[in-house]
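Lab notebook, page 48
Experiment: co-folding of the full assembly
Goal: obtain a model of how the components sit together before planning crosslinking
Operator: M.T.
Materials (sequences as entered):
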Amino acid sequence: MKVAINLDKAQVAEMYRQMALIRLFEEQCARQYQQGKIRGFLHLYIGQEAVAVGAMSVTRKDDYVITSYRDHGHAIAKGIHPNAVMAELFGKVTGCSGGKGGSMHLFDIEKRFMGGHAIVAGQMPLACGLGLAIKRKKEDSAVLCFFGDGAVNEGYFHESLNLASLWKLPVIFFLENNMYGMGTLVSRARAAGKDIYLAADAYNIPAAQIDGMDVAAVREATAEALKRVRTGDGPVFIEAMTYRFRGHSMSDASYYRESSEVEREQVRDPIPAFKKLAVTEGLISEKELAQIDKEVEAAVTESIKFANESPNPPMEALFEHIIAS
Amino acid sequence: MAEIIMREAIARGLREALDKDERAFIMGEDVGAYQGAYAVTKGFFEKYGPERVRDTPIAEGVMVGAGVGAAMAGQRPIVEIMTINFLLLGIDQVVNHAAKLRYMSNGQLEVPLIIRTVTGGGAQLAATHSQSFEGWFASVPGIKVAIPSDPYDALGLFRSALDERDPVIFAEHALLYGFKGEVPDAPYKVPFGQAAVKREGKDITLVAYGRMVHVAQNAAKLFAEMGKQAEVIDVRTLRPLDLDTIVKSVKKTNRCIVVEEVWETGGFGSWIAQSVQEAAFDDLDGPVGHVGGLDVPAPYNGVLEAAAIPDAKRVLQKAKELFGM
Ligand SMILES: Cc1ncc(C[n+]2csc(CCOP(=O)(O)OP(=O)(O)O)c2C)c(N)n1
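Observation: model returned without errors.
Model output:
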C-alpha cells in the first residue's frame, strides 16, 4: 500500500468515510433483512468496499457507472444518498427506484448511476451502448462497468469486450474478482484458472491485475485507465482481486467454503488496512477517523429512520412507467 | 404413503434417474458444491460425484446447448437452469435447436433433454427475477412443458419426463418447494397430457397450473361458502395439453375461468380459454374467463407485488362479472 502516500488529508478522509459508510450500511442491511424490513435477494458488498470507493474517487460526475445486483456500494460511492438506497431496500416510494426496483435494481440517472442489473453480465452490453453514445456525442466521459468473476463465462462478456475494443469504446471493464460466483470457486468455473485479466488480451484490450483490497491502488489504476479511455483509444480492463466476507446472498448456507478460509482472508480487510496505513503515514489522526466513524454511524441510523418512516408507493405506481404513454 | 415436500419429491425423481440410468447426469450452476440454489440437489455432489453432478460456469447458452448435444449423442442430460428468467440466455438453444432437430433431420435425431427450472414470483425478487415463461415455451412445437403443483405430481411427472424422447421443460414454482403432500411408496407415474381434477364441483370449472392451482383451490373454498361448487382442474402439462378433461368438466359446469400467473396479455391461459370456447361453445353460460397477472413488470415492493399476482378474490370477482355468481 505504498501509493497511499500520494494522497492528501482530504482525500484520505473522504475515501475512509466512504468505505466505512458502505461497511456499516451493509452490516445494517443484514440486520434489517433479518427483521424482515428488507426482502427478496440481498447481496452485500462487505469486503469489496475499496473497489467501488477507489474507482469512484477519481471519476467525474459525468462518468457513467453500471454494475450488477451487488450494487449498494457502487451506488453510495457514486453519490446516491444512503437514505435513498435504504428506502429502496425497504421498498419505499422515496427509494432511488421508487420502491419498485429493490436491492438488485438501484438507479439514479441524474447521478449517471445506470443501474444494478440482476442478470449476470447483462450490464456489459449496456456499458458498450453507453460508451457508444459518448463516442457519438464526442464527449470525453467514460463508462465504468463493474462485474464479477462469474460473469466472465457468459457470452455477453466476450461479445462486449470484442465490440468495445473493435469500436474503441470508452469503457473500463472493472472485474471484481471476489473468488466466487455464488458457490463456485473461480478455478472451478474457468478453464484458464486465475488471472482472468489475461482474457482481455484476446480482444486486444490493455489489462491489469490489481489489489482490490488496496483503495489507493484501485484509485491509481482507475485514474490511469481513465486517461486512456478519455482520449478515445478504447477500453481498458482492470481485474481487482478482492474477497466477499459474507455469503453470496442472505440465503447462502455456505457449504462450499470453510469458515476458516473466511477468517484467514480477514487479514486482507481493506478498511483496517487503510486506516492503519493512513495513521502511520501521518495522513490523518485516530481522533479524526473516530469522528468520521461517528458521522457514518449517524448517517446509517438516519437512513434506517428515513426508510422506516417513508410510505409505500401508492397503488397507481404499479401501472406507472411501463411505457412512456 | 408418506408426506413429503415438493423439493424432496423432485430430489427423489432425480436420484432415481441417476441410480437407474448410467446415461443420466445433472449439470447446472451451483448444483454441486453449493448444494443447489433451491437446495433440490442437496447431498448429490457427495453421493454421485462431480462427473454426474456437474457444476457449470454461469453460461446458460452453452449449458442448454451442451445438454442438447449430449442428448443428440444418446445421453440423458438433466440441465438445471437456476430460474426461468435466466433461461432467456439459452432460449435460442431451446427454440432453434432442441425443438427443431427431430423435425429438420426428418426423424434422424432426437433430443431427450430435461431442463429443470424455477418459475414464478411472489418472493419480492422484483422484475427480472419473478417471471413465468413456461407458457412461452409451451407455444413451441417440438418441446414439452410440465409444471407440477404438488409433490405427487412433481414426482410422477418427473418420472414421465425421464421416459420422454423429446426436450422437456420442467418448471417448478419457487414458492411450492416447501409444499407438503402424500406420495405413495409404490412406483407410479403421472403421464404427460393428462390433466387432473383436483376438486370436484358442478357450478364452475377453474383451470390452472403451477401455484395458481392453489389459488383456484382457495377460490373454490370461497365459492363453497357461497353455496357454489367449483371444480378445479390442474393442467399439469401445458404441452401436450389435455383439453378433453377440461371440456368434459365445462360441459358439466357450463362456466369456466382459466387462472395463470403470467401476464394476462398473451398468456398461455388465453389459448386454453379460446380452445374451450371452440370446443364447448354451446354448453357455456357465458364467455370463458381469464385471470392472469397484471400487465406490469413485477414490482419489488411487497404490497404492489401482491396486487399484481392473481388471488382468489380476483377469481371470484371475475365470476361475478361474467356469470353474476
Ligand atoms: C444469467 C444469470 N444466470 C444466473 C443468475 C443467478 N446468479 C446470480 S448472481 C450469480 C453469481 C455471480 O457471480 P459473480 O459474477 O462472480 O458476481 P458476485 O456475486 O461474486 O458479485 C448467479 C449464478 C443470474 N442472476 N443471471
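Interpretation: Residues A 68, 70, 118-120, 148-151, 178, 180-182, 244, 248; B 29, 58, 60, 82, 86, 89 surround thiamine diphosphate (CB under 6 Å).
Next step: discuss with group before ordering constructs.
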